[in-house]
Amino acid sequence: MEKLNYQVLEQSGYDGYILKDAPEKVLQFGEGNFLRAFVDYWFDVSNERVGWNGKVVLVQPIAMGLTKLINDQEGLYTLYLRGRENGEKVDAKRVISSVSRCLNPYEKDDFDAMMAVAESDDLEYIVSNTTEAGIVYDPACQLTDCPASSFPGKLTQVLLRRFNAGKPGIVMLSCELIDNNGKELLKCVNQYIDQWELPDAFRAWVNEDCTFCSTLVDRIVPGRIRDAAEVARLEEENKYHDELIDVGEVFGVWNIEGPEWLSDKLPFKAAGLNCPVVPDVTPYKKRKVRILNGAHTGFVLGAYLAGYNIVRDCMQDDVIRGFMNKMLNEEVIPTLPLDKADLDAFAAAVQDRFNNPFVNHELLSISLNSTSKWRARNLPSLEEYVEKTGKLPVCLTTSLAALIAFYSDEIVERTESGMTNRRPAGNTYPVSDDAWVLDFYMEHKGEDVDAIVPAVMKNTQMWGRDLTEIAGFEDAVKEALTVIRTQGAKAAFAKCL
Is this model's pTM higher than 0.85 or not? Predict the structure, then answer.
């Protein structure tokens, strides 16, 4: 079967939207599955819906990458968005044609090509997702490197070339999963301006003419399809061979922190896409952490003890699903600063996302490091709920009892790699967390409810405070843990409803 390119796609009979030629308006650092299922998808849909008429040039951020595969397919690849939307199963195929080519700047010709894009009149945006470790200042980088090894170093080289060519500033959209990603990136660029003793006029251009946006990305991207039989079936249907097939969930939102004018400059609002420009992404990050991530941490440990193994199956259980929804709708959402209709819609989408028929998301994988996760995701909601209402939130309270049960009930052994506990069903399971957390539970192995609960709650290293200081909290956790130990986690969840 022939490899995907424009001619092969036409011969295949594909009748979806395709744009072969357009100005290169975006320079994107990162060519992996996430950006291709997220950023490049949004630009592709904008081309179709509002005639944005733009292409994205990808830059391979490290020496090894996908440049050859992408160029062999002329930038084309097949994207499947799979999951549930409004309760309905979705399996949507789209051939993405927003990518023009990919450059490997570690090769001299491609480095020069990247710099030519920097000088282009067409360039408007630079996008990046170079992993959490990508936005770092490395003083070993030099201006004369071809290229600088760090991403901020490369970006400074690109911006300097554009400045020296007398071109206008660009909009920088940083997608790395760190707080204030755009601000942190600008900070690194300014460090290189200092280190390389670059002109004050360039510093002013970077900080005043360019717009560095912090953004919040939200789409689960499993990436490649690993089932050889399914790949063969899809290729038979598509009538071409695609080495870059990508898979993402249906849900997606891109919150972009920027000035008001950017909302009209970007094509997303006109295209009706879920990519709002907002004055501050912090409330949206809080929404994601407290609702999406907090839901996971809030129910998965108890659900695992109740006999479930993957998230989707939990959504088929009325008690567990009801517990999660009550926690989100009645205990978490009232503490958040965004419009309630927006929060309700986000929470409703969480149930669809967790019920994705195409993703087997294992509860044990979510259970990793649950101590720090509960502290970051669930404790703030509990504290703010108590402060706002003067009452304890029953579901969040029970979620802490489930965490204690998951870590402390039937400890089998402590090894160098972690801890092994026994599930009520009889099988053993790994408990993975910081060594000091596991050592703590080993020291308290076999303790009854009246001993283990205050020991956990008074551990300020775990929670940053003594949780027994919250009125009534200790007794409520003891009551919930007693139900878990005597009747099971599902019974404790049901008692909350």
Answer: yes
